[in-house]
Write a structure and sequence with these properties.
Largest sheet: 8 strands, antiparallel, barrel
Low-confidence stretches: 1-23
Number of helices: 2
Shape: elongated
CATH topology: Porin
Distance between the termini: 40 Å
Mean pLDDT: 86
Number of domains: 1
CATH class: Mainly Beta
Strand order of the largest sheet: 1-2-3-4-7-8-9-10
Structural class: alpha+beta
Order of helices and strands: HEEEEEEEHEEE
């Protein structure tokens, strides 16, 4: 069920991107493989779910009204987990700060939905609760923030490669109580559309 729902989300991202690409709104498409729930900012729960995830992100041209904020590019993303654990779908904004010719930092901030567990399925004291908590990240909320940063290297005018890190968490803002969150890290390849 999880794989089917995220496959549908990935198909939706692809269809939305293809329609927007023909209208000239899509600037770049990125895809890659990330290790899921790794020990970067949250090591306590890093062994609870498997991966990897396939990260697919479509970046749109920055609209003029976002010039005051450094012209971030809106994005949509789908991150299906190939092992059947938690998958994500997100929208947000991503900046690109070139610091030397061909090299850039790509920080981003977004809003994500997931199909993972939000709370323990068993009551406290039930022996099954301990086993359930040992195998599942308990996100505490169906919606999460998506904070990300990448180190990007361009190869010519169209292609790029990127070391990429993303953290999902509700930050006690979108939810309360449990907030185990998850980290992902890996490599993505980008392709710029248009001229």
């Amino acid at each position: 069920m999880r794989i089917a729902s995220l496959a549908a989300a990935a198909a939706g991202v692809t269809m939305a991107a293809s329609g927007a690409a023909s209208a000239g709104a899509v600037e770049e498409v990125r895809a890659g493989v990330l290790a899921h729930n790794v020990c970067i900012t949250n090591c306590k729960n890093a062994d609870k779910e498997d991966g990897p995830v396939v990260d697919i992100q479509v970046n749109f041209r920055s609209p003029g009204f976002l010039g005051w904020a450094g012209s971030p590019r809106p994005y949509i993303a789908a991150t299906p987990n190939v092992s059947g654990d938690t998958s994500f779908a997100a929208v947000g904004l991503e900046w690109r700060w070139e610091f030397i010719d061909g090299w850039a930092l790509t920080p981003g901030f977004g809003y994500a939905l997931h199909d993972g567990e939000t709370k323990n399925a068993f009551p406290n004291g039930d022996p099954r609760a301990t086993a359930f908590a040992a195998e599942n990240v308990l996100y505490g909320s169906r919606d999460l923030f998506r904070n990300a940063i990448g180190l990007q290297r361009e190869f010519g005018k169209k292609w790029s490669a990127e070391a990429y890190f993303v953290h999902y968490s509700h930050g006690q803002i979108l939810g309360s109580g449990r907030n185990q969150g998850t980290d992902q890290g890996g490599i993505r390849i980008g392709y710029k559309l248009g001229d």
